[in-house]
Amino acid sequence: MKEFIAFNEQRAEIYWWMSSLFARELTEQDIEQYRGGDMVTFLSGLAMTPDLKEPVEAFRDAIKRLESREDAQLELAADFCGLFLSTPKSGALPYASMYVGESGLMNDKPAQEMNKLMEEYGIALRKEFNEPADHLAIELDFMGNLIIMANQQGSKEQAEPVMQAQLDFINTMLLNWLPAFSAEAKQRDKFGFYAAATEVLVAFCHLDTEFLKGEEQ
């Protein structure tokens, strides 16, 4: 159970990291952390997994290229706004409804489904993050909380329904739109930092489904 809990904590950490990356622009301090210390160790660890090596290396390359980018923080903030806070014609909007909704508008069925899931599991929206429930940052934060919920069960057997819920969530609420979102980001993000981040996320979600399927067997 200890190994199970420790591994789940690592999984949750990755989802929460990605959630924060798509929630707001990076600050100067954030960028400095990406260039050294714990974040370098964290990304190096991810790159040791064969399925993540290529996308993580591409992301690390984008971080390295920030060093030669004039006014890196301002430019990266502009990339964030242009991609995630613009229009469907010019950006890659981080809302599931824009990709798998029925109307092509915000707050479609995926947002309603997320609200139901959060109510079902007692996971609340952060009040300071005023976005529809199907925003990528909210979905990833929810996934992190769902993982920790499994750790709070008395045994691996008791945790099984929550692990199954995680697998269902990735398949029906993340991987049903993330590849299309990533393709949009790759097309529109000229510098490539956020495009690379989306590719890391998609690769990790695929890898995580394999882990969860193994747990179910």
Gyration radius (Cα, Å) is 17 Å
Q: Low-confidence stretches at least 5 residues in length (pLDDT < 50)?
A: none
Say how many strands there are: 0
Structural class: mainly alpha
Q: Judging from the principal axes of the Cα atoms, what is the shape?
A: globular
Let me know the average pLDDT.
94
Helix content: over 70%
Termini separation (Å)?
17 Å
Quickly count the helices: 11
Keywords: Chaperone, Cytoplasm
InterPro entries: Chaperone_TorD, DMSO/NO3_reduct_chaperone, HscB_C_sf, TorD-like_sf, TorD/DmsD_chaperones
Protein name: Chaperone protein TorD
Organism: Photobacterium pectinilyticum
How is the secondary structure organized here?
Blueprint: H1 2-23, H2 28-35, H3 38-47, H4 50-66, H5 72-84, H6 97-100, H7 109-121, H8 136-151, H9 156-174, H10 178-188, H11 193-216
Helix pairs in contact: 1-8, 3-4, 4-11, 8-9, 9-11, 10-11
Explain what this protein looks like in three dimensions.
Keywords: Chaperone, Cytoplasm. This is Chaperone protein TorD. It comes from Photobacterium pectinilyticum. With 217 residues, this protein is an all-alpha fold. The chain is built from 11 helices and no strands. The model has no long low-confidence stretch (mean pLDDT 94).
